[in-house]
Amino acid sequence: MTIKKISSERFCTKANEMRLITASIIFILSLLLAITFSACSSTDNKPSDDDSDDDTDDDTGDDDNDDDNLPNPCADIYAQDILPTFEVEIAPEEWDEIVYEYEHWQELNDQGLPIKVYHPLISFRYKDEVINDAMIRLRGSPDMWIVPKMQFKISFNEIDANGRFHGLRKINFDASAVDSTILRERLGSSYFQDLGIPVSCANNAKLVINGEYYGLYTNIENVDKEFLKRNFGKDHEGNLYKYIWLETNEDAGDTSDMDAFMSNPGIDILDDIVDLDEAILEWAGEAVIPHDDGFFVGGINYYMYDHPKRGFIFIPWDIDYAFEIAPVNADLITYEVDFGIGKPPQFTTVISDPEWYQKYLNAVATALSAYDVETLQNRIDQWEEQIIDAIEEDPNKHFTTEDHINQVAALRQYIEDRHYFVALWLNCKRGEGEHEIVNYGDQQYYLWYTQCSWPDAEDFCESMGGTLAVPADEAEQTFLATEAFGLIANSWWIGANDIAQEGTWVDPVGVALSYLPWAPDQPNGGEQQNCAVLDQQSAGLWNDKDCQEVYPSVCKLP
Q1: What is the 3-state secondary structure (H, E, C) of 330-398?
Q2: In the chain, what is the greatest distance between 2 CA atoms, to the nearest angstrom?
Q3: Average pLDDT of 153-164?
Q4: Strand, helix or coil at 505?
């Protein structure tokens, strides 16, 4: 007789169904209860949307990874030239329980009951392969679940600890509430792979349930021991964290490494406990695309792996919240999301160090080179052709096919626009780009063609010992406008601003201005527009602008 193992979560919900058991089963049940309540209490500090499993300590199974060629290739089910179809058969009563958990997750959660309970499958099929001991559960953050499509995790090692499917313990079927392209996660994964960052493999896949097409998903590799082996070979025994929550080596429970990181101990110790070269490249990659739910912006949806030889390595996750979700001009240092925990102090510590700041800029340049517009747009086009029929036929999608097509077009355009902005941003930070030096009497002016924000333009001028220029009279005003517009027919930043006090216009060092040649009906931007330009449309008279807009600039040299 084959005895199936019952997960602790499932036991919690089914304990009240136990009836008419024998004395021997009661004895076994008492042992299971002790284990169950221990397991439930060990996850009390994890949020309800935590999607981890309790088997990552288990290191059974064969290790076929090649340590000489890391990372090893993705499993074949993640190949980019296929749209795999996975079929599951599940008993009606088990399916009804899943639907109940999906529809009543809030009340279950309020009662302290598990939401994502594993249920047995009658069969799991891929092509001619059939697995009869797989299990399925809901996955993802319940408050981001969409109606009517459920998201799933299928596990192959709940019953048999050695169970694997194409070398995988689990596979994830993701249906993002914020991504009607169903391509962002896949595109982000391919980008980070190009950048050399360890990341989950991903493609799209169709799911058939009890003989009926249920929907199209993003098919995402699980971050677990198999992932660590694929990426780090024999060095896969370190602590893996989802944000600050330990996912491996839980029996030992030693989180002193994460405690040290979270204490933000300073650049020297961070350099000792973190692979900072990898970290700043991963942060730069998040900043370039940008990723609105990762470490860089103050999100908590990422993994960290404490490599035994290298220290902490960052692993991006949930990249569906990326690309055109963020403003196209999101800054690559200061940008953060309002629903996060704030800008990570470790990031601030690193880029506050002059040497590491330059390394970060170099990392942004590397990340930008991997953000190749033609390559990314070609992938979008190829994958869109691959999935469009499955999108049209998807009976549970939460958007129309027209919405999908429009959003794919928006994603495609965003790639181009974001690359343009990041290239400008990098030139601004590095002080690169063409310029002209002109003389007005004994005074020199540096006319910098590179379009930057006002703060970046002022930083650049200060790096040369000067400031953004402020004309003192009509003659100087006319001279600078004529020279600037003769080089580029655009508005140009000057130093006048009312950043400190609305309506009080001063020069960059805070001296109040008496000469204020505003264009008609200007300034009119209120608190939203605090920096002045020589307005090209008003023959050089001043106009107030949002300080984060980008224009060429006029520096007054010492």
Answers
A1: CCCCCCCCCCCCCCCHHHHHHHHCHHHHHHHHHHHHHHHHHCCHHHHHHHHHHHHHHHHHHHHHCCCCC
A2: 103
A3: 97
A4: coil
Q: Give the integer Cα–Cα distance in Å for 424 and 451.
A: 6
Q: How far apart are the first and last CA of the chain?
A: 89
> Tokens 């060092």, residue?
509
Query: For position 22, what pLDDT does the model report?
Result: 31
**415-418, long-range: CB within 8 Å, 24+ apart, which pairs?**
415/323, 415/371, 415/373, 415/376, 415/377, 415/380, 416/373, 416/377, 417/328, 418/288, 418/289, 418/290, 418/323, 418/328, 418/371
pLDDT of 10 higher than 70: no
Average pLDDT over residues 444-468: 96
Structure tokens at 325: 């979700």
- Over residues 492-500, the mean pLDDT reads 98
Helix (H, G, I), strand (E, B) or coil at 103: helix
The confidence score (pLDDT) of residue 380 equals 98
Q: Is 302 helix (H, G, I), strand (E, B) or coil?
A: strand
pLDDT in tens, 505-552: 999 999 999 999 999 999 999 999 999 999 999 999 999 999 999 999
DSSP annotation of 159 = S
d(CA 283, CA 20): 57
So what's the pLDDT on residue 36? 35
Rg of the chain in Å (alpha carbons)? 28
Find out whether 241 and 247 touch, Cβ atoms under 8 Å.
Answer: yes
For 91-141, how does the pLDDT look when each residue is reduced to its tens digit (9 = 90+)? 999 999 999 999 999 999 999 999 999 999 999 999 999 999 999 999 999
Nearest Cα neighbor of 247 from 314, 183, 189, 305 is 305
Q: Which of 122, 149, 150, 151 is nearest to 135 (CA)?
A: 122
Instruction: Give mean pLDDT, residues 301-312.
Output: 97
- CB-count burial class (<10 Å; 0-12, 13-18, 19+) for 309: exposed
CA–CA dist 345, 333 (Å, integer): 12
What are the Cα distances from residue 337, in Å, to 33, 327, 330, 331? Answer: 42, 11, 10, 12
Average pLDDT rounded to a whole number, residues 428-447: 96
What does the pLDDT read at residue 38?
33
Given a contact cutoff of 8 angstroms between Cβ atoms, the answer to whether 297 and 340 are in contact is: yes
